[in-house]
Amino acid sequence: MITIVGTYECKVDAKGRVLLPAPLKKQLALSLQNGFVLKRSVFQPCLELYPMAEWDLMMSKINKLNRFVKKNNDFIRRFTAGVKMVEIDALGRLLVPKDLVTFASMSKDIVFSSAVNIIEVWDKDLYEKSINGEDVDFAELAEEVMGNINDDDNGIS
């Protein structure tokens, strides 16, 4: 599993092309030749960019679902809706397909935000609203999600 670090602001042109920032492109160097999968996020109005190795891991989990269970079949259909294989060209640009631009309400300014092993691609205004949202008390969320995890000997979660 790779770990991607950082948040990067970029511009998208009228054709949906975005130039990846050099630090992000450097982190993705080993994934460039295998390509990427770009898809709709399940929980947020953004896109998710999976390096192909990470996508293959996700698909191996999903492939274990019994397709004769209707909920599983419905989930697979919705999870893979709008999925596109994409590449980063020789100039370091990513082409975001029009239907995905529309889904994520992307304007000229976008944000690439690391999400451990994938990258979220957001419209800048929607990203700012998401991280500054008053509807979530982050301290409370952090305690609930991470508060009981302490698997290191150093006393730090």
Notes on the protein architecture:
This protein is of the alpha+beta class. Helices cover 32% and strands 24% of the residues. It is built from 6 helices and 8 strands; from the N terminus they run ββαββααββαββαα. The strands form 2 sheets. The protein has a 6-stranded antiparallel sheet with strand order 1-7-8-4-3-5. Strands 2-6 form a two-stranded antiparallel ribbon. Strand 7 and strand 8 (118-123) form a beta hairpin. The longest helix is centred in the middle third of the chain and has 11 residues, at 52-62. The protein starts with 6 loop residues before the first strand and ends in an 11-residue tail after the last helix.
Order of helices and strands: EEHEEHHEEHEEHH
Number-wise, the strands total: 8
Mean pLDDT: 90
| Head-to-tail CA distance between termini | 20 Å
* Main sheet: strands, sense, barrel: 6 strands, antiparallel
Strand content: 15-25%
Helix content: 25-40%
Structural class: alpha+beta
Uncertain spans: none
Walk me through the topology:
Blueprint: E1 7-11, E2 17-19, H1 22-27, E3 36-40, E4 47-51, H2 52-62, H3 70-79, E5 84-86, E6 93-95, H4 98-103, E7 109-115, E8 118-123, H5 124-131, H6 138-146
Antiparallel strand pairs: 1-7, 2-6, 3-4, 3-5, 4-8, 7-8
